[in-house]
Specification:
Helix content: 55-70%
Number of strands: 0
Oligomer: single chain
Shape: globular
Structural class: mainly alpha
Largest sheet: none
Strand content: under 5%
Number of helices: 13
Length: 241
């Protein structure tokens, strides 16, 4: 990308911001046709990676997640178009496209390729948007369990639990030292509670795969008390950013 193009991408008008917000709103509502109509209003932003990426994702959802092969080809074409190489990944904003590609590989049972992508993307988990960061963490845990890297999965689960549930990500990124007592006083949102339960399910799976039945039973008991049945939590959604 030339300096002129980079300057153009960095310059976003108020109207374009409003269009992008409307597109995201329509996407979250499941109105993918309306979402694409809004995105098409930004067609003059030819050199904007996010706009191109979001259009690909919206089109995939419009197909009811059926045109996976086309989705994969479009993502690869996008990454090549913007000369974004996994081994040289240095921009957190580009992680979402690689993550979405990893999701496709994972569901195709291409674990080696998925692991190669996820190990690189995971390095950006702290500066990453919290929602995407959680998805990255959960997919990597699922992947590690799929390839029998149980100890790595357990280590990652401990990190995710400490990073996302003991103290808010905002406080961590702001450099504030918040004690556990203060953190415990904060109310937990349904989204946060759901994430905690997913971590607990994965911990139970780790214990079971390591034949640690005592710890497994304890974890399952906690889940049952939370009205959560022991089941697999699969990553099934790609991310619209």
């Amino acid at each position: 990308m030339t300096d002129k193009e980079e300057k153009y991408v960095g310059s976003v008008s108020q109207q374009e911001c409003e269009i992008a917000e409307t597109a995201l709103l329509e996407f979250n509502r499941g109105n993918y046709n309306n979402c694409l109509q809004e995105i098409n209003k930004l067609e003059n932003r030819t050199f904007d990676f996010k706009v191109s990426h979001n259009k690909i994702v919206a089109e995939y959802y419009k197909s009811e997640l059926k045109k996976t092969e086309a989705f994969q080809k479009n993502l690869n074409y996008l990454l090549n178009q913007f000369s974004i190489r996994l081994e040289k990944l240095d921009d957190v904003d580009h992680c979402v496209a690689h993550f979405n590609l990893a999701v496709v590989y994972f569901h195709n049972n291409q674990y080696t390729q998925t692991l190669r992508i996820m190990e690189r993307v995971y390095k950006f988990i702290e500066p990453m948007d919290e929602t995407l960061a959680k998805q990255v963490g959960l997919l990597l845990v699922e992947l590690q369990l799929s390839v029998k890297q149980i100890d790595k999965a357990m280590t990652l689960l401990v990190y995710l639990e400490n990073y996302f549930t003991n103290t808010s990500v905002t406080e961590l990124k702001g450099g504030k030292n918040v004690g556990k007592e203060q953190s415990d006083k904060k109310s937990t949102t349904p989204v946060e509670e759901s994430f905690k339960k997913k971590l607990a399910v994965y911990k139970a799976r780790c214990y079971l795969m390591n034949h640690n039945l005592e710890s497994f039973k304890k974890e399952v008991a906690v889940l049952q008390n939370s009205k959560v049945s022991y089941c697999m939590f699969q990553i099934s959604n790609v991310t619209f950013k």
